[in-house]
Batch of 2 targets.
Target 1
Amino acid sequence: MTALTLSTAGAATLRADALVVGVAKGAKGPVLAPGSEAVDKAFDGKLAAVLATLGATGAEGELTKLPAASGLKAPVVVAVGLGPVPGKEDAYDAEVLRRAAGTAARALTGSKKAGFALPAGTVEDAAAVAEGALLGAYAFTAYQGGENKVAPKDAKSKDNGPKLPLAEVALLGAKPRDKAYKAAVERALALVEEINRARDLINTPPNDLYPESFAAVATAAGKEHGIKVQVLDEKALVKGGFGGILGVGQGAERGPRLVKLTYTHPKAEKTLALVGKGITYDSGGISLKPAGHNETMKCDMAGAAAVFAAVVSAARLGLKVNVTGWLALAENMPSGNATRPGDVLRMYSGKTVEVLNTDAEGRLVLADALTRASEEKPDAIVDVATLTGAMVLALGNRTFGVMANDDAFRTSIHEIAEEVGEPSWPMPLPADLRKGMDSPTADIANMGERMGGGLVAGLFLQEFVGEGIAWAHLDIAGPAFHEGAPYGYTPKGGTGSAVRTLVRLAERTAAGDLG
């Protein structure tokens, strides 16, 4: 994990591999952002002009490297675009700063230390830069750089292993001795460490990450951070009657698990339950996915990874709220023992479900976990899942859908997500779509109308939420796994989508802001 410090040094005197400054897009060319004053002074006040000569415009995401002036200890200056210059009464948006810091951190892969002289005049700005830089300084290298055991090593050849992320971020322009700044930086570090742990889990190949090994990771984290962890294995799931989780996992050689993580605070007045879909590999089961749709299905446990990271973050931050996480873990595999289309499962709730499509498995494991979570009467439940391709068709690859049984709660989740920089959109639960899941054989079918499939999945889940409990469903199928080129602080692969939203929800609940 990249180190983060509030530097007491100035930009001109900091010894580092590079200095990062912000540049905005003005009406007549690039405009330097606050924080860059000392660097500009070293260029005799001509840094903006030099950048313009090099073709920089200040457009968001644009990055320009140039040799540092002689008055600076760092050898390189990295100018990152912030987009349009804000109005006189406005400040740079926090998400703009996160993305800019992330862009710069990615560009400095392989460096030991960089000074970030982006706008950090407020606690909020400093937190955004810290988060962005740490999120951008991420790489999943666990399976790269192994020794060549055939060819002898050439002592003169360079190491062919992967470049490591930027090792240290020195935040400039903040107030190192101010308690609020220190707290903001400490929060950013703890939060991003857990987001990156979620990213690691999502990126881990399914031959190494499966229900039992995921449960072991959760158990180890619980011991480290004072979280109570309970793991239900196959025998316990059979005894408890968790027909949904068992039905999905019965085709795999490696059995399913239901993991409960419990973080409590002695002064907490509210309890949140978080439920995560944890399909560690999704082949579609008997309803096998078509060619070209299997390669990234290790990411189908991203919801469980987000819940796990959020519970650990709440514990590390000492939030005055009780948070319970439920990880519904299974592999969805085809075999002679797999659930068939047409089978009927008896769920933990006692309801029966006719399985019309075994690739609609996430809602089955979530249903059991939602019922179990409801038994403890939390103040609210939020489930997170890479649930439907229909949601990707509706909202694209960067926005997740939010459904809920309470309009005010749905609005709060949407506002929180937007606040922390996670694009989301409120979606309805149209009652007329429920009829499509009527089954002549069971209480409900796991499929309904094809059109509006993401909403149908939400309606199915709603059937398993306890009466009188506020509930929201986040379908993160689009943003959970990024297959394109990295951008901002978003890497290729697992993104850790929804962690920041869940943690901010916990913080607001602890503060009493959600009623």
Target 2
Amino acid sequence: MKIRADIVAGLAVSGLMLPEAVAYAAIAGVAPGHAILAAIIGTLAYALAGRSRFAVVSATSSSAAILAASLATLPGGEGVRALFLIMAVAFAGLLFLLAWLFRLGGLTGFISHPVLRGFAFGLAITICVKQLPVLTGIPAPGGSLFHTGFAVARALPDWHLTSLAVGLVALAALLALRRWPGMPGALIVLVSGVAASGLLDLGAHGVATVGRIVLMPGATPMPAFSLALVLETAQLAVPLALILLAESWGTMRALALRHGDLLDPGRELRALGLANLAASLVQGMPVGAGLSASAANEAAGAQSRLAGAVAALALGALVLFAMPLVALLPQPVLAAVVIAALTHALDPRPISRLWALDRDQYIALAAALGVLLLGVLDGMLCAILLSLAALVQRFGNARLARLGRLGASHDFVDADRHPDAQVPAGIAIWRPAAPLFFANAERMFAEIARRTLAEPGTRAVVISLEESSDIDSTALDALLDFDRAMTAKGFALHYARVHDRVRDLLHAAGADALVERSDYSVADAVARLENP
């Protein structure tokens, strides 16, 4: 039964992979064969090396948009573009493999969820606006997102109404068919679009069609080796790999959690690296686990990675044996498939939830505006910087808590949040609410000194370092300077919840006396001060 379910799911998903591949190739500005081959090879490679039973590894909307922005900056002809495509995909694959080799599975959380949601929201708007010329049947204008929107609005009298009607009917059908998750909506719309194009001769009525698809790219003369091109490609491969990683891991993790499946980040890094290297061998586009195809695989009832392999083989058979029919597919139907696939990213609820929580909403909004105002590539880099800035801001401005004892217990809690907590007489107990590191250590210790000196009658200080499992050299120097300064002023200092790695560092720095005044609990440190 599982094999049968995988075969049915794979056949259903192949009907979505074809129009998505053609549409994403159009977004990237490359021939459809680059996306189709990438989908076939990438999904097969992942089925052999990956773990997620739902992941369909093919070209994605975000990677296509980043690739388009990268290709737009290249001087030269088709040879340069072809070489850049091969090298960019290969570099992205190598970055995944290096991350796996050096056990950098933690990179899966490198971009925070608010930043990723804002980036996805802005990217979805960008791609949907870029589909409007196809949907309305007018020549695609170049330029920015706003230039495209204004050009489409100005060309209102020239809109091709038949193309618009075909696209809107396809979009309405795709959205309506979502009410039945087990039904292959994209395949139904794809077949219906081909049938309508043949029966009604839509091409003769001015509706643009896909036309003949060349599966294997022709032999394009490659330019001579250029170190400058290699360096530029390597530089642009970093944001490409990051967005593929963020999008793929987010998709895999969400689907795995929904079904209680276990994933290994290291194995997924290796699988994505091998999939992209395989795609580069056939001049394919960069590949990752896109949400629309993977969610469709889940909805179709996939039970194992066999479903992805079946989908890849079915896609290959489809383009090999049904190529004349695929050529009849109306391009407005492709635009509708892209827009329908991105409707989940256009849902404002994940971002509005951040406003309700009053957490990270401005970061998500800034990430979305970065994509809309700066473009996809610069917007991606802006999103990465926002993730780092949010991390530094949160840790750099961490709160300092004053601790007190709960009753006669050994528990010490934030006295401001627990009015019943008793602060020991003459002893100030402080706890930084974030790990100490170069951006916050000096400020935190200065704040402890200021608040301690402002309290008359305080003769001893306990600092709980429970949040700092390790510290850097800047934080170490700040700690030693603080200890010397406060000891010189006559205070007795003890440290609590000091982790072994911090103790090792203090020993290496020659601060053995400070280690002797360190305890594993706040209660022990207070007891030593109360009973010297």
